[in-house]
Amino acid sequence: MASNLDNDIKFLPGVGEVRARLLANDVGIRTLGDLIYYFPFRWIDRTRFYRISEITEDHDDTFVQIRARVLSKQFTGFGRGQRLMVRVGDGSGTAELVWFRGTKWIERRIEPGREYIFFGRPSFFRGEFGMTHPELEGLEAASGRPAGALQAVYSTTEKLTNAHLGTKGIAGLIATAWGVVEGSIVETLPDKVLKQMELMSLKEALFNIHFPQSAAQLKAAEFRLKFEELFGIQLNIMAKRSERISREDGFIFTRVGDYFNTFWHEKLPFSLTGAQKKVIKEIRKDTISGRQMNRLIQGDVGSGKTLVALMAMLIAADNDFQSCMMAPTEILARQHFASISQMTDGLGLRIAILTGATKTAERRAILEGLAAGYIDILIGTHALIEDRVQFSNLGLVVIDEQHRFGVEQRARLWTKNERPPHVLVMTATPIPRTLAMTLYGDLDVSVIDELPPGRRPIKTYQKTDADRLAVWGFLKREIAKGRQAYVVYPLIKESEKMDYKDLYDGFESITRDFPRPEYQVIAVHGKMKAEDKQLAMREFKERQAQIMVATSVIEVGVDVPNATVMVIESAERFGLSQLHQLRGRVGRGGEQSYCVLMSGQKLSKEARQRLGAMVATNDGFELAELDMRLRGSGDIAGTQQSGLAFDLRIADLGRDQQIIELTRRVAGEILDADPLLERPENALLRTLKERFSPQTPKDFSNIS
Ligand code: ADP
Ligand code: MG
């Protein structure tokens, strides 16, 4: 059925060719439907007035409105650099307002001694609140606003703003479009679901998301629209899952044989933690079920995931299957190869390593060995995915540090066998379970939530440059005890705009403070050749240097148990999950380890929360939850590359986990009763599922 939602935006009054092109290019709006589904990212309460004294640096990410009297106005600077500075006060305090553009016009409107309404984003100069380019209105404007009315704010671009499509312009277009399409909005959810979940109708929700009639109605509208998106996604994921489970073509690892048993009884130098045993049992259950295993193992750095994966590979070998383990970097692949070869020494397993750096002759031998079945375990990097890598009977694929690989890359490993091998994915990025399943699709999740005994929790401190001497003194004392330290910097190249410590600077100053011959310092960064990096890592591991200066390349998996201090420079620049990963590089041996977060004196509210959380807890899951609350899932390292195929317009996988849970439950109930959504009452859901299918191109032609 044709619908005017599909109408070209350019025919809407107030748009035309030029703006239509801008809207398409800058924000992807081509049709009236696109426009209606262009949701605000924030709503502002324009009935609330702040007192100047109330506005602190914690408000740096919220818009505020003040009612204040103009105390003075003056121009400063000349020509293009001219600014209008206006000092205002409201009895509780004063603030400086600044305009760079349109200064003459503003200056003429502002009369000293009179009161106005100013609205904008707070900025702080030496701790004092001010605003740049606030919106300016007379007092009478406030009386026209209905109580509780919220104003939508849309994201826009500079080009759009110049074409009078700032947030207000966009709101105007949406109001016009609404008049046109209102009658063609068709409900997308079945009555039963609407009733069961007490959801607002689609039409009401779309209206209230743009023009909230009250805070309560806005909330209901948000909930309804988020529910719809997440529900569409869950229908897809859960349908795919039941399909995998019903296929029943998984390899069956019946035997637990010599490889596993000899390793367990003779090689394993410690006993497994309860959590490791639990996960091994889960893997056992999966691999005798007759279904393909697709399991994510989450565990903090050092929780013993790699060991669990090795034991799964031993079971595969006991059943005459080959395994492979894919690591995200050359360094990690070599490290896994070394430790696994050493731990399984004497078992008679044939283990090989294949990376981009493997020499041609060696590569040829490995490829032959794989195809002929001589090699039991292959460890490597992305090189494993290449088409010429062919196994004779690949039974298990282990992927380490999942978030570095995309869904596509994983899928290519599946196809290395006619029947799909079992898959274990290991990640140290703790992700709440519902999010993991939504991000990675159809995976079962195991959690290793226990560290091997004897590990002492890492002590974390937050310090500033003023403490530099004390921190270096501490480092020297640790080094005197025979320990090693990392010092990590956020950037490789000095950034012109920002005054962050850069690696080379850092390297120089550290070699000055830790001079040879007493101290050896080595550097590792992302731009080094793989061989040089490895060499440096090896030297550090062999204790040829006490300090490793690095960029965040050491974040993943590197294992040097003798390193006990991690100093992170400009720590406010790192995300929470990255900080946690970095901290996990120490605390790997029996000694007390430390993490020192160096930061500037003045921090944003968010940076303060991040660093504070790091000091307060070592629990990766707790930090991950906080990270997602602070940033939303969109920014989580790797979610972009991880190939999230869904185009979320309003839901946030991090913040909306409760809605995810809810949609899983409802989708599960419906699919259990009607797996293919064939019943007439589920017809709408079939359409919804289709709309959110990863294969469906994103357009709105199938909404109505
Ligand atoms: P992850 O891959 O989760 O970071 P690893 O498997 O690399 O962790 O284990 C980290 C270190 O702890 C390794 O040196 C490993 O041998 C050791 N380890 C693993 N499991 C145990 C255990 N149950 N008891 C003692 N040490 C363990
Ligand atoms: Mg690991």
Structure description:
This protein is α/β, with parallel strands linked by helices. 39% of the residues lie in helices and 17% in strands. It contains 24 helices and 22 strands. The strands form 4 sheets. The protein has a 7-stranded mixed sheet. The chain has a 7-stranded parallel sheet with strand order 12-13-11-14-15-10-16, with helices on both faces. Strands 17-22-21-18-20-19 form a 6-stranded parallel sheet, with helices on both faces. A hairpin with a 2-residue loop joins strand 6 and strand 7. Helix 9 packs across helix 23 (657-673) and helix 9 crosses helix 24. It is globular and about 90 Å long. It starts with 15 loop residues before the first helix and ends in a 13-residue tail after the last helix. The model is unreliable at 494-500, 634-645 and 696-704 (pLDDT under 50). The site of magnesium ion (MG) has 4 residues, from helix 12.
Notable traits:
binds magnesium ion; alpha/beta; seven-stranded parallel sheet; seven-stranded mixed sheet; 704 residues; 22 strands; single chain; disordered C terminus; 24 helices; binds adenosine-5'-diphosphate
List the bound ligands: adenosine-5'-diphosphate, magnesium ion
**Secondary-structure content class:** alpha/beta
Strand content: 15-25%
Total beta-strand segments: 22
Low-confidence stretches: 494-500, 634-645, 696-704
Shape: globular
Q: Whole-number radius of gyration?
A: 30 Å
Helix proportion range: 25-40%
Individual helix count = 24
Strand order of the largest sheet: 6-7-4-3-2-5-8
Distance from N terminus to C terminus (CA atoms, Å) equals 7 Å
What's the mean pLDDT score?
86
Largest sheet: 7 strands, mixed
